[in-house]
Amino acid sequence: MKKRSWVHPLLMVLLMIYLLSPLAATLLYSLAGEWQTTVLPEYWTLHWFADMLQDPRFTGALLRTLLVCTVTVVLSMLVMLPTIFIVTVYFPRFERLLNALVLLPYAIPPVVAAVGLIKIYSSGPIVISGTVWILIGGYFVSILPYMYQGIRNSLRTIHAVELLDAAELLGASKIQAFRHVVFPNILPGIMVSMLLSFSVLFGEFVLANLLVGGHFPTIQIYLYQRLSESGHLASAIAITYFIVVLLVSGVLLKLSKWFFRAPRLG
User: Fold this and answer.
1) Residue 56 · residue 212 · CB < 8 Å
2) N or C, which terminus of the chain has less Cβ within 10 Å?
3) Between the CA of residue 242 and those of 2, 19, 26, what are the distances in Å?
4) pTM of this prediction?
């Protein structure tokens, strides 16, 4: 009988400790009243969370961040899904070109991209420098690789071309084949891409700070502004920030499972 190896569980435990230790320390610091020379805080308090929640700037920054991230992710999905589908199914010779274009954000540092966007959109026919629109545009470009990889891999996994051919042979039009056969099968991949993109944008700071800064303070800028006031308060904001991302991820995953259980014709 083969003995169970203890190496893999041990590595998993060590990895979890390594990943969760900073979060646990931040949580402890956010709940600490005084913590100077003792191993654990001298007393516990929710004062920092109450201070944060009573600040109207926090609520405004959180809502603005949710709005910008949601609009950007939905807009990116609406543009990238038909683009990737058409190129993959009908124009596969352009796939390399599309792949090279969407991977460009990986090669351009956010600071360089922000400076270029400010230079271009500070004058000329489209003046949107310092507005939320330039932030949405910058975010849109930055998540292209995540949207592209998830959707393209899903299309390849289900063999979209063969599925379409089979659906059309059975009498379905191209739109019906996409709506009832292809789309339900790639929906989990789309949801994962959207979730990953949303999480990346929710933690992004460089573009938000350089492109809009105090004109449109997001939660990242709010956290940066209050970081110098109190480490306890900054820890409370970071924990709340993490909980919001966790809740949004849970809702998206639930939605994905609900859609995945929906009746399909494929």
Assistant:
1) no
2) N
3) 41, 14, 11
4) 0.81
